[in-house]
Write a structure and sequence with these properties.
11 helices, Quinone Oxidoreductase, Chain A, domain 1, single chain, Rossmann fold, 7-stranded mixed β-sheet, alpha/beta, 2 domains
Length: about 350
């Protein structure tokens, strides 16, 4: 079979790989959809050292059907034909982090990540431990399941870190796929969302996904505009998804405000002497746990949220080079490979 690989110089190479076979405790998933994530671009461009290699199949937003089941996998865990999402990390299964659904934070340092330390979903088939599987609800498409596997799930994870957001004002910085997901989910959770970006077409999409107000921070004075919108109490909550707006985010955060930074690479700086009277809570979030991935999917179904509309482009595997040339421009929405 062919899989997408990144040499790290802004190119895509389709390489031949043997069809995977499941070992004990493993399953082979037939890919139906494999999403393109903004973090792919770090590896595509070679901007960071990510511990993988040019022989690693990319794609960490996989979704599909169980194709084959290895020895020792119980039928109630996985059976051929099951529609499944994949939590794209796994660890030792023994430590506190793994047992609580956070294998990416494995205390023993055994965390494996699809597309980095092991093959990902940009290929017709992928082999993964059966314990990484989560049911794909009948009300969701494979594309929706792929998005929830990272991009949308990352926004959900950040919102869960912020806590009770219902009835509060939340500013979401960045309206790419993760930011749009944050806008959509937060609106459904009862927050008043102010969407911020420098791209008017993305801001138009933010309105469609539930933003109460939109602000182009390249065209107006951000602090003045947000002060007019947020009122006397100031901004209560911030979700920063762009990875470049740390200073802007803190400049508008009000007293007792909470801010969650999920955009990469991201830098956040402040002088305690100047800010300590504001009693801020500053936090980060790393994707989501296995439990929260499932809850995010259930929430999307319960509220009929249009996750599929995050995608503006769909590609076949043999269009991989064209797909990533387009995605590298970051001028449009989300892309997905469909099989």
């Amino acid at each position: 079979m062919q899989g997408i690989t990144f040499p790290g110089d802004g190119r895509v190479v389709l390489k031949e790989f043997p069809a995977p076979q499941p070992g004990p405790g493993e399953v082979v998933v037939r890919m139906r959809a494999s999403g393109m994530c903004g973090s792919d671009l770090h590896f595509y461009r070679g901007a960071v050292s990510f511990g993988g290699s040019a022989d690693t199949i990319q794609g960490h937003e996989p979704c599909g059907d169980v194709h084959a089941v290895g020895e020792g996998v119980a039928p109630d865990t996985a059976s051929v034909g099951d529609r499944v999402m994949i939590h794209h990390y796994w660890g030792c299964d023994v430590c506190e982090q793994c047992r609580s659904g956070w294998p990416q934070m494995c205390d023993r340092g055994n965390a494996q990540t699809m597309s980095i330390t092991t093959h990902g979903g940009h290929a017709p088939y992928a082999v993964v431990p059966a314990r990484t599987l989560l049911p794909l609800p009948d009300g969701l498409s494979y594309k929706a399941g792929a998005a929830i596997g990272c991009g949308t799930g990352t926004a959900w994870g950040g919102l869960m870190r912020l806590g009770d957001i219902g009835g509060k004002t939340l500013v979401v910085f960045g309206q790419g796929p993760v930011g749009l997901s944050g806008t959509m989910l937060a609106s459904a959770l009862g927050a008043r969302v102010i969407a911020v970006d420098v791209n008017n077409s993305r801001l138009e999409r933010a309105r469609a996904f539930g933003a109460s107000e939109v602000v182009n921070s390249a065209e107006v004075d951000l602090s003045t505009t947000i002060a007019d919108l947020a009122g006397r109490r100031g901004v209560e909550l911030i979700l920063e998804t762009s990875g470049v707006a740390g200073a802007d985010a803190l400049s508008i955060l009000g007293k007792w405000g909470r801010a969650c930074f999920i955009g990469l690479p991201g830098e956040v700086h402040f002088r305690t002497e100047e800010q300590y009277k504001k009693q801020w809570t500053i936090m980060t979030s790393w994707t989501m746990s296995t439990i929260q991935q499932r809850r995010c999917a259930e929430f999307v179904v319960e509220h009929g949220l249009p996750i599929d509309d995050l995608y503006t482009h769909s590609w076949s595997l043999d269009q991989a080079a064209e797909a990533y040339e387009w995605f590298d421009k970051q001028s449009d929405g989300k892309g997905v490979f469909e099989f």
